[in-house]
Amino acid sequence: VVPELASREHLRKIVPVVDEALARANVKLPDINAIAVTKGPGLIGSLLVGVVFGKSLALALSKPLIGVNHLEGHIHAVLLQNKLARLEDPSVAEARLPAVTLVVSGGHTSLFRTDVNSASQNGGKMNLIYERMGQTRDDAAGEAFDKVAKLLALGYPGGPLIDRLARHGNQNAVKLGRIKMRGHQLDFSFSGLKTAVLYRVRGTALAGEAEERRAWSKSEGCVTVDELRAHCSQKTLDLVAGFQNAVVTDLVERTLAAAESAHIRTIFVSGGVACNSLLRERFTKAAKQKRLEVFFPTPALSTDNAAMIAAAGCARLIAGERDGVLLSAHASLPLGV
Ligand code: KG4
Ligand code: ZN
Question: CA quadruple 240, 275, 153, 252: dihedral positive or negative?
Fold first, then answer.
């Protein structure tokens, strides 16, 4: 993603996208209660386009404005999907929390202890609180999927393609090893794994195959996953399956370790990589074995979407929070303590 081009696209699309969302929801601007807008983290140019647009809209319509942390949005996607955030009845969420949340996307791989301030202490209002338990020290998991897909000329974004192709490979054929962490065991690191894949490709027949695939897909333009698979050798499919297995194993094991260390029995998984079919399968199986409860949003709500920002904004609105015209965007806005 080229930051400058991304902000220009945001500028071009923000009005038509808002118009279409209102049309599909069959509401008019005066009917809405408040404006929620992402204030970070992310690419600063794109964030600023959204924040300035949101502020202008709130000012013009005299509606409350709420700046939302993108990662809090991903956590609210889980609550929204599973109807855990019955805002009029905070006890529904309280019964499930605290949870360990894995936010796993193209930009983030983080674990948060997610809890709710007791409604009774908080005047009956739901107020979620977050404590970061671990995070990636280098690449995010989604970024690793995208980089491996780029190396093998599979297309972009790489995650969904690797997910589909890996079903045809043997995940045990290539030994990539476990990801080892020095120090804090709830942190993540995916750059070593990406390099391990690179070493399996560089100077081998797989590199030539990838170059042929790159030329082929460029000449074809749009290709289907089945066509792509037909242009992959079994060795490439095995490598892709081994890579996905290594990432998923690591994500599941560290999340379970976080839950165990904090004596927590609820797990939330959200973000683009939460769409991954092997990740869902492994979490569901592990949860059953260990008698934990695991909650995902649907794939559409897992990946970046506006409903999750509205849901997080709604909780803050009910809790009485408001932002003013001084609201600004922050590229590396942290979540929690
Ligand atoms: O949450 P998201 O839509 O945007 C960010 O905030 O980054 O996540 C996008 C990321 C991309 O890296 C994409 O390759 C990955 O999520 N992704 C997947 C799958 N679907 C999307 N990764 C693995 N398996 C998938 N099925
Ligand atoms: Zn995201």
Answer: negative
Counting residues of the chain whose pLDDT is more than 70, the rounded percentage is 95
Ligand 1 neighbours by CB, cut-off 6 Å: 105-107, 142-143, 145-146, 157-160, 163, 271-273, 275-276, 303-304
Give mean pLDDT, residues 38-62: 98
Distance between CA atoms of residues 109 and 269, nearest Å: 11
Average pLDDT of the segment spanning 275-299: 97
**Atom nearest to 304 CA in ligand 1:** 3
**Closest ligand 1 atom, CA of 143?**
12
The residues pairing with 111 across neighbouring beta strands, listed in sequence order, are 102, 134
Q: Percentages helix, strand, coil for the chain, rounded to the nearest 5? A: 55, 15, 35
The residue with greater pLDDT, 329 or 86, is 329
> Residues with Cβ within 5 Å of ion ligand 2?
105, 304
pTM score:
0.94
